[in-house]
Amino acid sequence: MDKNPIRDEFKNVKSIIFDFDGTLHNTIKIYYPAFSEGVKILRENGFAKDFELSEENVSKFLGEKPNFAYDLLAKDADEKLKKDVMTHVGKKMDENIASGIGKLYKGTVKVLEELYQNYDLYILSNCRESYLENALDVYKIKKYFKNYYAAETFDYIPKDDIIKRERKNLREEIIFIGDRHHDILAAKNNDLKSIFCSYGFGDESEGKDANYKISSIEELLEIL
């Protein structure tokens, strides 16, 4: 008899919602080189001069809405410049995935393969539709998901509001697995359980309200 208290806590789960970047996808590998080009353009236009370009600093923007970084680094820039830079970075990210630079976290495919047998799997990501479609195709994992939601489809409303809209289409009980504060907040605001991915791009404190924390995606198979 399995007496794992954590496994018991999640025993009624039917649907699992995954964040994508920082949860399934080690996005910094494609994002850093693309974002570096964006920063170069901003600097040429007089912005982001005090921003220190490093993987650690850039990773803080991962999981946020696409415009978050540019509103922060170039808040006084006109919207056209910010949009042009955002489009350029997005295009480079897509190219980097297609060229094989990107990578899922170790064990991701194995975990999805096993969970897929017993749960309905979903993705909810603060990203563009084309980016998510492209990534799922390149990594050949689209088949594991019953549905996947890019925030662009919903005009980038908060994740908790997207869950409220789509919840009727998901089997209860539902858990949310993610690496950023808004993932855990989305679960909390919808009375869902959550699992925080401490290996992702969020600070450890962002997972303080999660029901459980994992240090690798492979740990999911020990508790689900």
Summary, kept brief:
This protein has ten helices and six strands; from the N terminus they run αβαααααβαβαβαββα. It is of the alpha/beta class and 224 residues long.
Helix share bin: 40-55%
The average pLDDT value, as a whole number, equals 94
Structural class computed from helices and strand pairing: alpha/beta
Q: What does the largest sheet look like? A: 6 strands, parallel
Instruction: Determine the number of helices (DSSP H or I, runs of at least 4 residues).
Output: 10
Beta-strand share of residues? 5-15%
Radius of gyration: 18 Å
Strand order of the largest sheet: 3-2-1-4-5-6
Order of helices and strands: HEHHHHHEHEHEHEEH
Number of strands: 6
Shape: globular
List keywords for this structure.
224 residues, alpha/beta
What do you see in this structure?
- With 224 residues, this protein is an alpha/beta fold.
- It is built from ten helices and six strands; from the N terminus they run αβαααααβαβαβαββα.
- It has helices at 5-9, 28-44, 55-59, 68-73, 79-98, 108-115, 129-138, 159-166, 181-189, 220-223, and strands at 15-18, 120-125, 147-150, 174-178, 193-197, 212-214.
- A six-stranded parallel sheet has the order 3-2-1-4-5-6, with helices on one face.
- Helix 9 (181-189) links the parallel strand 4 and strand 5.
- Helix 2 (28-44) runs antiparallel to helix 5.
- The model has no long low-confidence stretch (mean pLDDT 94).
